[in-house]
Write a structure and sequence with these properties.
alpha/beta, 197 residues, binds S-adenosylmethionine
Length: 197
């Protein structure tokens, strides 16, 4: 089964499973989100970030799965939001198109996170910012159960073996601004990056 198929099946239940667990975290990490720019939300899903974002940006939300995008439509008011079906690993946008990119619960979902991050860096303007929320192993962390689980669930929902530091090596234009441990004893992290000017 492809991720597109599985997220089509997951879509009706996604909010029930995920919204409450992450809502406070989203509110916290998006409370100072900048205004007045072009923002890409790559892997927007059902749009659970949207209620926490400031209205005075132009937003583009991209996702592979039409059933997830259809649910995001219901959350777009009052934002200026364009929804696009596409692949976060091969973005259909020109270089340097966005002031900010949000990668929430997508980098550790896609088969090739290094392509996803490199593409986000490509479409960012110099000096632009990128915010990641996801679950990552630390370099050299053994985590045998998560690596075992990964074999099965990577095909239907998410990877559980991604090491952020390894992925970042594929986007040399990005500089680390902050790395904040969050849920699951720091398994989930909010990582902020800035593209070199
Ligand atoms: C775990 S959900 C996260 C959704 C949302 N960002 C959030 O924070 O709730 C992962 C999303 O990634 C989408 N997805 C999976 N593979 C993708 C790809 N290659 N390109 C774009 N979206 C993808 C799925 O359809 C799903 O909506």
């Amino acid at each position: 089964m492809s991720l597109k198929h599985s997220y089509t099946l997951i879509a009706p239940f996604y909010d029930l499973a995920i919204r409450r667990a992450f809502d406070r975290t989203r509110a916290e990490i998006l409370k100072d989100f900048p205004s007045g720019g072009n923002v890409l939300i790559s892997g927007i899903g059902t749009g659970l970030d949207l209620p926490h974002l400031p209205p005075d940006n132009q937003y583009v939300g991209l996702d592979l799965t039409r059933a997830m995008l259809d649910r995001a439509t219901a959350r777009q008011h009052p934002l200026q939001l364009t929804l696009v079906q596409g692949d976060s690993q091969r973005l259909p946008f020109d270089d340097a198109s966005f002031d900010h990119v949000i990668l929430h619960l997508i980098l550790a979902v896609v088969p090739h996170p290094e392509h996803c991050l490199a593409e986000a860096a490509r479409v960012l303007k110099p000096g632009g910012t990128l915010q990641v929320l996801d679950k990552f192993l630390r370099p050299d962390e053994k985590a045998p159960m998560r690596r075992l689980a990964n074999i099965l669930i990577r095909h239907i929902a998410t990877r559980t073996d991604v090491v952020f530091e390894h992925v970042l090596q594929h986007a040399p234009s990005l500089n680390l601004v902050s790395d904040q441990p969050l849920l699951g004893n720091g398994w989930f992290r909010c990582i902020r990056l800035e593209k070199s000017a």
